[in-house]
Amino acid sequence: ATFRSANEAYGKGEYKVALQGYSQLLSNDGSSAGLNYNAGCAALKAGELGHAVVCFQRASRLAPRDQDIRDNLEFVQALTRLEDQEESTGNIVFNYIAKLVFSLSTHEVSLLQLVFLLVFTLGAVLWAVGVSGGLRRGAIMFVSAGLLMLMINSAMLGAHIYRYSQVTEAVIIQDDAEALSGPGEDNTRVLVIPEGTVVRVRESRGDWALVSLPSGRSGWLQSSQVEEI
Length: 229
Prior knowledge:
Distance between the termini: 27 Å
Structural class: alpha+beta
Largest sheet: 5 strands, antiparallel
Number of helices: 8
Strand content: 5-15%
Number of strands: 7
């Protein structure tokens, strides 16, 4: 009923009401790519750019190859791109590799790890029992292919685990948030970050968070000014 009401509100142009409904479902029933996508669309229509970026980022992590999610995420990223965020050749290569690595969800990479482990184990068992002829050649092929794919997929799985457990990314949800030189309002303003910008949270102190941009510039913001992805 809540989902139908949210969809009806969206169809009538009542985007804030629709966003409240989708957010309620996400809070009660857990995260899903579809609900995050719907919430992102409603937030974007309601003029809440920061919230839209958060929702599209979350949806992308759950369904990285969904074309609608990718198109909307690219659209909001274009809206929030900073002037000093032009990519160097090194960054372009790194971003291309990262795009390939994260074209699969963490769940999919974990399942592939299990599949490759089974292939390697099957080949190792056949080799260990001393089969001969074609079976032995097949066992060697299984072991070699399984080991190679395990190594590649292990690197991908490690990248996923590192990014989603060791790196905290957040989105600026306040228009032109003023980052300060320290955790306190009496500090000097060091930069202004537009709403919707994705930042990395380096440290938290009470109600303050130290965030950094891809360029390396950093500053302290109140925690209410950012929302973790």
